[in-house]
Design brief:
By secondary structure, this protein is an all-alpha fold. It has helices at residues 3-14, 28-43, 48-60, 64-77, 83-99, 103-116, 121-133, 137-150, 155-167, 171-184, 189-201, 205-218, 223-235, 237-250, 255-267, 271-283, 291-302, 306-319, 324-336, 340-353, 358-370, 374-387, 392-404, 409-421, 433-438, 443-455, 463-475, 478-490, 496-500, 516-524.
């Protein structure tokens, strides 16, 4: 799971926000509706209203290409005198083009919609935003100003004008616009989120964090604010943590701030700080939530404190019947302590809760590897791939078992190749493309992959340099590996379990552990591991 999704789901769980899973087009009611649409189109292939309504359904469920095909047919068959229908069709197609980032096409449709309904405020706003996305700032400004003339209390216009002012490097004017927008509805949390977005554009990260905290303070269930502060932590971790610390000083009994700071800290591998905040919440009864103990267990596990981790995860398991993920974590802890039989038992208990849960399947397979039951482990890795064919780690695991333990090098290479093909953008260490290339014998390409990634980022928490350390370790270039290991530790990558004990899938630092430089570096940076 991506870090952003993990943090947001954890915070929402703690704040008692319930998010219901959407079944999308597979929901029985939706399938019935779509079947009716198809029958109507079978009867009349030129039924433009049905094309339009089905396009809306596809759009609602993010099936943009299917929606585009239907709306094109709707426009094709709609009579020219049906101006209201054509206006709606052009508007919908513009939305679809926006989602596909085809802004020129979107603008053409919005111009057509505006010609049919010049008084549409929504069309004007959407057109202004599209012009902004195209970099046509002066034209966007004109549309935002027209919006103001239609509605002199338009916050949308003020935010748009502020964004244009930033692009024009008129930061003073941008500040005036966003402050005016906030002054109109200071009790509504969303306006602070919008001001934060402009402040982020201006490079005012501290101000943006303050706004997002204001939004959360105004409405703790504002998922947009939670999402934005999590995203901002990925680009400016220090600003987010400073802002949350300031909020805690001003409101020392608000558990949400401690929890948010703790979860963000742990996701950025600062486990000691996270443990401190989780314990603060527990000791002062700021929240009563079993997930706190699950989070504590994860932090202790990452620090290699397996006894503490086991105590915490046992408490979490006993506090709720919704404990599938806790059993998965307990399986990891048991395996880390060399008890693969208990790890298997925990993975099985998780699978009883959800037979298709891939993390449990993976933990069971890894425990089977420890038991030297490689055939069954390989089969389970294959099952995980069937459940989620887009996760490169599953391919890497199966290739590792096939090559290292089952003497099936050719089969292993096919899985390495498939893993490499999943990395379309070639710019994220979590795709593991460099490792799949390296283990195919394509060392030069693997090294270029990691060096390109490192050249284009500010590694605020050491994660990327940890992966670089792993890659160079397995390439045999220990000098480079130790160079990057030092940077990873300097940047705070405090996952002691991974440094010392992770041996899975040739995506680890195992080759370095016998070199005396390894322990020297860990000792040099022991402060990030020790409480």
């Amino acid at each position: 799971m991506k870090a952003t999704k993990y943090i947001l789901s954890a915070v929402l769980a703690c704040s008692s926000v319930v998010i219901y899973a959407q079944k999308g087009l597979d929901a029985p009611m939706t399938k019935a509706v779509m079947n009716v649409y198809q029958k109507l189109l079978d009867e009349d292939p030129k039924d433009y209203e049905t094309y339009f309504h089905r396009a809306n359904e596809y759009y609602k469920y993010n099936e943009y290409l299917k929606a585009l095909d239907d709306i094109n047919n709707a426009l094709k068959y709609t009579p020219g005198n049906e101006t209201d229908m054509r206006f709606q069709e052009y508007s919908l197609r513009a939305n679809i083009y926006e989602m596909l980032k085809k802004y020129d096409d979107a603008l053409a449709d919005l111009n057509s919609a505006a010609a049919l309904n010049p008084a549409s405020y929504v069309t004007l706003y959407q057109r202004a935003n599209v012009k902004y996305n195209l970099g046509r700032y002066s034209e966007a400004k004109s549309d935002y100003q027209r919006m103001q003339r239609i509605n002199n209390r338009s916050q949308e216009a003020l935010i748009g004008l502020a964004r244009v002012a930033v692009k024009e490097n008129n930061l003073g004017l941008a500040n005036e616009y966003i402050d005016q927008a906030v002054a109109m509805t200071p009790s509504q949390s969303d306006i602070y989120v919008r001001r934060a977005s402009v402040r982020t554009m201006m490079g005012n990260y501290n101000g943006a964090v303050d706004d997002l905290i204001l939004a959360i303070s105004t409405d703790k269930n504002n998922t947009k604010a939670l999402q934005e502060i999590v995203d901002l932590s990925n680009t400016n971790y220090s600003a987010v943590m400073t802002g949350l610390s300031n909020a805690i000083r001003q409101a020392p009994k608000v558990g949400m701030f401690y929890y948010l700071r703790a979860v963000i800290a742990s996701t950025h591998h600062n486990y000691l700080a996270a443990i401190s905040d989780f314990n603060k919440i527990i000791n002062e009864n700021l929240y009563n939530y079993h997930g706190l103990y699950g989070s504590l267990a994860e932090c202790h596990y990452a620090l290699g404190n397996y006894t503490e981790a086991l105590n915490d995860i046992n408490y979490a398991i006993g506090a709720t019947t919704n404990n599938r993920d806790y059993y998965v974590l307990k399986a990891k802890i048991k395996r880390a302590t060399g008890n693969y039989e208990d790890a298997l038992d925990c993975a099985d208990k998780a699978l009883k809760k959800d037979i298709n849960h891939n993390p449990a399947i993976i933990e069971k397979a890894l425990a089977l590897c420890d038991a030297k039951n490689y055939d069954d482990a390989s089969a389970l890795f294959g099952e995980a791939i069937l459940n989620d064919a887009e996760n490169s780690y599953y391919y890497m695991l199966r290739a590792w078992v096939l090559k290292d333990f089952m003497n099936q090098g050719n089969n292993a290479n096919s899985f390495y190749e498939r893993a490499a093909e999943l990395d379309v953008f070639n710019n994220n260490v979590r795709t593991l493309k460099g490792f799949s290339l390296l283990h195919q014998g394509k060392k030069d390409k693997a090294i270029k992959w990691i060096e390109d990634i490192l050249a284009g980022l500010r590694d605020s928490d050491g994660l990327e340099h940890y992966y670089a350390t792993c890659l160079y370790a397995w390439s045999g270039d220990y000098d480079k590996a130790f160079e990057y290991m030092k940077i990873a530790l300097q940047n705070g990558y405090a996952n002691y379990h991974q440094w010392k004990n992770d041996n899975d899938a040739r995506i680890n630092v195992a080759p370095l552990r016998k070199d005396p430089r390894f322990e020297t570096l860990l000792n040099q940076f022991s402060i990030i591991f020790q409480q």
